[in-house]
Amino acid sequence: MAADTALLADPRIASAIELVWHEADLLDRKEYQEWDRLWAPGGRYVIPIDPQTKDFAATLNMVYDDDRMRRMRIERLTSGYSISAVAAARTVRTLSRFVVRHRDDAVVELGSAQVLVGHRREETFVLGADVTHRIRLDGAGPLIEEKVIRLINSDGAVNASGFLL
């Protein structure tokens, strides 16, 4: 237990966790343009179907976005012309159970649990996921290099969400 507490005293880890919490707040407030500025150039946003896969490029994913695709997704969500924008869900998410998977002077990789509660069209729903954030620390501030969301029901039917995970 003392080792876990010592990890929180590491400013690299504290900075990475603060970025993840800030990201969650931006997503719940639908501040997608500001959210996009949290990403390192070439960053990947991935929601795999296979909960065990590590080779996202060679497997089927619900989402596998690079910079260009992420910005196109944001445009669809904010334009008002797509069903995902018209029927956008209100969300509140909690990220906890942080585990450091890797750290060095340039990168911190965190694992966490996410519980997202959403409300859309008079219905409330809950999504759970294991999330991995790879945070680049060697620039002016921390940036997301990769975010992988492993939904606990990823192999089941998934409806259009109208929000970003």
From TrEMBL:
GO terms for molecular function: dioxygenase activity. It holds the Pfam family Ring_hydroxyl_B. The keyword Nucleotidyltransferase does not apply. Keywords: Dioxygenase, Oxidoreductase. Belongs to the bacterial ring-hydroxylating dioxygenase beta subunit family. This is Aromatic-ring-hydroxylating dioxygenase subunit beta. It comes from Streptomyces luomodiensis.
